[in-house]
Amino acid sequence: MQTRTNMKAWLFAACIATVSTGSSCDLHAQDAGAVLEAIESSTIAAIDKAEPSVVAIARIPKQARPNSRARFNPLSLDSPMEFDSPISDPDFVPTFYGSGVIISADGFVLTCAHLLGDPEENDYFIWRSGKSFRAKRVSPMPETSSPDSQGRGRSTVAQVQASDAFSDLAVLKIDAANLTPIEFGSTKDLRKGKFVIALGNPDAIARDGTPSASWGIIANLNRIAPSRKEATFGNKETVHEYGTLIQTDAKMNFGSSGGALIDMKGRLIGLTTSLAAQKSVGHAGGYAIAADELFLRVIEELKAGRLPDFGFLGIQPDDLRLSDREKGRRGARVRVVLPGLPADLAGLQTDDIIIEVNGAPIYDRDDLFRELSLPPAGENLRLLVHRYRSGAETPEILPLRAKLGKKPLRSARPSYAIHQRPRWRGLEVDYWTAISTEIQRIGISAPRFPQLKVAVSDIEHGTTVWNAGVRAGYGILKVQGQSVQSPDEFRKAVENLAGPVTLEIIQTDGRKKILTIPVPTESHSESS
Question: What is the 3-state secondary structure (H, E, C) of 461-511?
Fold first, then answer.
């Protein structure tokens, strides 16, 4: 039966193509009707499978009066809040709203980070399958309420696990069990023209736990999200500004952000976002964050309550010159190699053309950035480079290996995680490349210290480390005479040290020192 239906679908598609060229078609009307019924049945089945996993989310500023409702302004994400009725009212409509997707049976919910705003300043309410859940930044004692007139049931406190501005992904946790998590599909076989369905909470109308659906095709892939006017390459707020988005003609109004873009088997292939369309209100189609390798890596970190990191090579890339493109060349040209950083240590040079990263072809600088973002900091990277000698038409082909640093991130949108990086005696460390201001301040000295990988990202005033002379931005070369090559190596080196500890550091003026950190006094408790 399935084979027969597939054959009819193929015949129907062929018939449409034939008629469009002015030729005749012999497909009988009853066959065409059967094909349409099969498509309709597949669409219904896909929605039935995925919609129990899609939720509605409301964002309520903490300064709002409790148990109150916002007057709805559908065109503004930043309008003032005015309240005049309880949140438990069936007619409650929030000013800030969106969608989410259940990704585990025990209550993890995936959404867009821009929907949450600052978790320090907001509470969140989640509706799914007839129930409402209250999500907050921190978990106090559980709150309960009696069922309302629509049977939304028990209201339960949860927490924001983590929200990452750069990937624009966030994970909430609700107090629930036996939920229906979304099934993940593959993004490797996505093509223009593939049928897709968007499920979400447009215009805040899915508060009864029933997401709204729209149907369409994939219009394009690797689309670029609009950036702020002042953003430059290497200084963009999200990875999607380098071209990661799925474009679809499935209609998405405000509130669709955080919803599910599914294939015709009901599997998640993207997380819908209206952020890319906000500059053109009433945009007919929409966009989705592709559920690719980077997507999956990031949400695992967010579920664990940690912020992900992103690879950093230490170059200023550029697109190829017109003369290169006219010769059929492809790749990203290295305009500047920052001294002492991973690219420099790997042997990259100015005017090298990177044509592959870990086997993936590179056509322009956006491709390069996307591929550099896939692995986390500390990973080894395989590069294939074309190097043109003066006057030569044929390039030297160089396979190079680089160990990635961590990308310094700059965003007006806050990131948040329940698990902050651990501190030792009031000291917090990170990859040196992530301390962006210090790259500029001591980058010129970096060739003198190619082994420098770790730096102080924060320090508590008045601790023994502070009193010993360590400051934020200082590099750390050694602990007890042993070199450290990553923040994890530093933490492992100090975790069992109870007495005084020697650190070899580099100050922001490039001078190297050896400092002894005394044992913390009992009067000053320091985290470990």
Answer: CCCHHHHCCCCCCCEEEEECCEECCCHHHHHHHHCCCCCCEEEEEECCCCC
